[in-house]
Structure formats: C-alpha cells, structure tokens
Amino acid sequence: xxxxxxxxxxxxxxxxxxxxxxxxKAGGVxxxxxxxxxxxxxxxxxxxxxxxxxLPRIVLCWVVGPLxxxxxxLFQSLTKNPLGSPDILGVNSVGSFMGxxxxxxxxxxxxxxxxxxxxxxxxxxxxxIYFLSSRKNISSTKLAIxxxxxxxxxxxxxxxxxxxKSLEIQxxxxxxxxxxxxxxxxxxxxxxxFSLCLVVxxxxxxxxxxxxxxxDETIIGLGESLSFLKFILLILAVLCSSLAVxxxxxxxxxxxxxPQMARNLTENKVQRILPISCLISILxxxxxxxxxxxxxxxxxxxxxxxxxxxxxxxxxxxxxxxxHLEKRRGGAW
Amino acid sequence: MVNLTGQNxxxxxxxxKILRDISLEVPYEKISVIIGPNGSGKSTLLKTLARILKPNxxxxxxxxxxxxxxxxxxxxxxxxxxxxSPSSPEDITVRDLVFFGRHPHQGAxxxxxxxxxxxxxxxxxxxxxxxxxxxxxxxLSGGQRQRAWLAMALAQETDVILxxxxxTYLDLHYQFEILDLLKVLNLEKxxxxxxxxxxxxxxxxxxxxxxxxxxxxxxxEGKPEECLSKGLLEDVFKVQVHETMTTRGKPQFxxxxxxx
Lengths: 333, 260
Known about the structure:
The complex is a heterodimer of chains A (333) and B (260).
Chain A: H1 5-25, H2 34-42, H3 48-79, H4 86-89, H5 91-105, H6 114-134, H7 140-164, H8 169-176, H9 185-200, H10 206-211, H11 216-221, H12 226-248, H13 254-265, H14 270-294, H15 303-329
Helix pairs in contact in A: 1-14, 3-9, 3-12, 3-13, 3-14, 5-6, 5-7, 5-8, 5-12, 6-7, 6-12, 9-12, 13-14, 13-15, 14-15
Chain B: E1 4-13, E2 16-26, E3 31-35, H1 42-49, E4 57-62, E5 65-66, H2 72-76, E6 79-82, H3 94-99, H4 114-126, H5 142-155, E7 160-164, H6 172-189, E8 192-196, H7 200-206, E9 209-214, E10 217-222, H8 224-227, H9 230-237, E11 240-247, E12 250-256
Parallel strand pairs in B: 3-8, 3-9, 6-7, 7-8
Antiparallel strand pairs in B: 1-2, 1-4, 4-5, 9-10, 11-12
Helix pairs in contact in B: 4-5
C-alpha cells in the first residue's frame, strides 16, 4: 500500500484536475468540446451554461467535499469509531429535518438563515452524542446504534413534515436528496469563504486530535483536558457537516468513505489524513455529480442518490477487507 | 522534589461509597504498592491520585498544588500514568507511540526537538525496545507491548509514575522483567513509583512501602516486613496462609486451599 504522503498527494491531484475539467463536459443537453472549455477558461468565450450552470456546481464540489471529509475525520476521531460519520451518527438527519422545517415553514425568511437552522439541528444531535459518550459505559457500538435510532426517528419526522405540507414539496425534496442543482456563483461566495476557514481550523488542533487515538485515561495522563478538547472538536465537526448539508442537503457516504480511503493511502496521522481525505472527497463528488448528470441525460439524478449507490458497495468492500486484515493480525477492530 | 499526597479522599459512584476518608503520602523516591482484594477500591485510589477520577471530598496535592485545580498539562510534566491494559491504537509504531510521551512538553505547533528525540531514545533504551522501535504495536508480544506503554510514560520524563496493575496478563517471566525495570529506574533515576499490584508476594518483594486498602479504607500501611502478616492476609484477603518465610528480608507467603 502507498504510504508516501507527497506521492499520494500528487497522484490524487492529477485525476482531480482532470475530473474537474471533465465535469464541465458531463451531461446536459448542450455538448461541449475540450476547445469550448479551453476558450471559456481563457476568457475568450462567455458561455451561459458553462459559467452559470456548470461552474457553480463544480465549485460546490470543491467546497462541500472538504467540509464532508473534515467532518468525517473529526467525528471518527471523536467517537474512535470508523463508522462515526455525520450521516451515521444522525447529525445530518437532525440537520436536514431543521432544514426542511425551514424551507417549508419559514420560506419568508432570508435564505441565508437556512444554514443556521441546519446547524442548530446538528448541534442538538452532536451535543446529545457528546453527553452520551462522556458518560461511562457507552461503547462506540452503542453510540453508532443511538445514531441510527436518531437517524430513523428524524427521517420519519421529515416524512411527516412533507406529508403535512405538499405545496413547496419540490424544493424540499430536491434539497433532501442532496442536490447540486440551482446554485449561482453569487450565492457561493460566503459559503466558500466560511468553509475555507472551517476546513483550515482542525490544523490548529492537529496534536490534540492525534492524541484521541488513545483511551480516556491515557489522554488525561498525557495532559489533555478531555472535555474541553472533545467539545471544541465536536462544534467544529458539526459546523462542517451542517454547512455541507445546508448547501446541498444530506449527501450520504462521502464523509464516511473519504477518511477511510485516506487511511488506506497514507500514514494514520491526522495531518496526513485530513488533506488526503479532502481531495478524495472532492473527487468522489465530482464523479457522483458528473455521473448523476450524464447517466440519464437530460434527466438528472441528485448527487446524494449517486453517492449512496456507489458508496454502499464501496463501504462493504472496505469493511470486508478490514476484517480480513484484522483476522490475520488477530486484533479486534 | 515532587510530593504526591492525598487528604481525606472520599469518592462515590452514584450512592455507593468507593473510597472513604483516605489520607496518604506517597513516599518520595521509593516504590510503593497499593494492595487489596477485588472491589476494595485500590484501582480507584490510583486513578484518583492520577486525576482520572475526581474525589467527592478531599484534595490530592502534587507539590502542594491541588491536581484538580491545576492545568492537566503541567501535571503531566511531573506525573505520568500507565493505565491498566490500555487499548492500543491500530497502525502505530513503537517509536511513534513513545513520542506521544513528549506530548505534555510540546506546544500546539512545535516539532520534535533534540530534547524530545533524546528522551524517546532513552526511554526505548531503558525498556530494551531499540531493536523493535519500527515494529507496529500489534506485532508485539504482550510483554513487549507492556514495555512499549511503559516507555511512553518514561518518555514523559516525570518524577512520579503511577501504574495500574502493570503485570496484568503477563507471564511470570515478564512480570519480573517489568518490575525489575521499575526497580532499576527507581534506584538509578530516583523515580517515585506508585502502583497497584495483584500479587501479594510481588508487592512484598518489590515494594518499599505498602498501602493496604480494604472496603474503601486505608486498612494498613508500612514497610512490607512491618505491615504484611498472616493475620492481615487472612482478615483482608480471606485466604489461608500455609507458610510464611522471608526472602531478602521481605515476607513471602504460601497459601493453602480450603478444600483438601
């Protein structure tokens, strides 16, 4: 397995750049040649479809990807559980519930309030998990089960909201499936800036996050204040996943898979895993969105649906391989 | 000189009192051992001294400062802890593990300095892990892994080290190996050692000073030869002492079964 960090970075950046340009060509009614895209980037042509429809969603991949990956890495470190991602823990479901609630009942309010609504939901769930996990005798497995329960509860609450209010349903449903559709560049300016800050933040806590691989006694023995550390990282992780959810709706599996794949590609150190998983996450989103647009073109499948279709088997594959490795090594996962 | 003392410690889990009014002073530059039957609160006492658990009443003072009111990082520079069978993270080499011992001495962005590397190399040498330092933790035997955790605590370069049953799950040979190592460290580096041990004979053999805990109270304390007696063992541990003898001035016991 590849373990050299610079080499992994370079090997990822290549496909990433290529996929970004390829993504301009994917799907849609209007076909573009490489020439068209080249001229567009040179500023020699100003194509409406490229600049107003394609560019924003590709930028969105680059914004949401790192957010999802960062949230995934942080939640996995916090819960010491490879399954601890915002989608599994229920953070995204509670956030989505609040998002749908906002879209259906508070559509008269300015739309920039949507992320706050999602954040409040995510924070509620995050705090719940935080308090449960700071109690004794809560294993990672129990935590994951609690997350699944929260997820199911809020999914049905979302269904309830939708069945109560059928008029604005289309916007809500599109958002809920995880969609990159219908964003303009102007809307992306602030999220872009904000997400950049969020994605950079964990690097200020690298040493502390690395210590989270140990159990609580060892962490305290090494001089960390456990409750403070967990609290800060939890807020950061919820902010990342909430911003991602409010931009695109819940896009499943990416936050779970990207850090897992990164762990296979590089050393198990947060300073390595964070950047690598961000790049993998962007790559996954570019392909998921590109496939979603081209498979049944001109019809479009929401990106969240594609990530789930691709993510589920990939996740099983990782699980199988992992347990196989563990068996050989004789340790418990 | 770093002094660790506990004053009138009370600790409850819910309504249940685990520690009752325990006051003790950890002997400076000595090896002291906490012994007691299962559920007596000996591990809890060690964890309270290590600030893992907070007492409901009473104080633990390190150098005269309350450890539950000082910065955890400052304490970690003076006092290290080796928990009982810590869960080992996957994919970590021995050397990387030992480097974590330097954590309390480092800032948020500081890289490993010469001082850090030296401390790690020293800890690896003391625990005879130099040849294994590039191995992954999961590739080691139980005894080697225990030595690796000890090396991490040693790299912390503290004056006091607390160990929670460092010999658990180890074969007899490795039990002696790890205790011999602690003895050497105590003699050569003037390390103050405080640990919980299950085995009474080992406690007597290696401990300069013993704390006997029973039902949450400090039942007795003193040098092994003063404090360990047939009567105490039969009272506290509910075992039949068949024979008592003395090895190098330390009492050793042979126990007998109740069924013949």
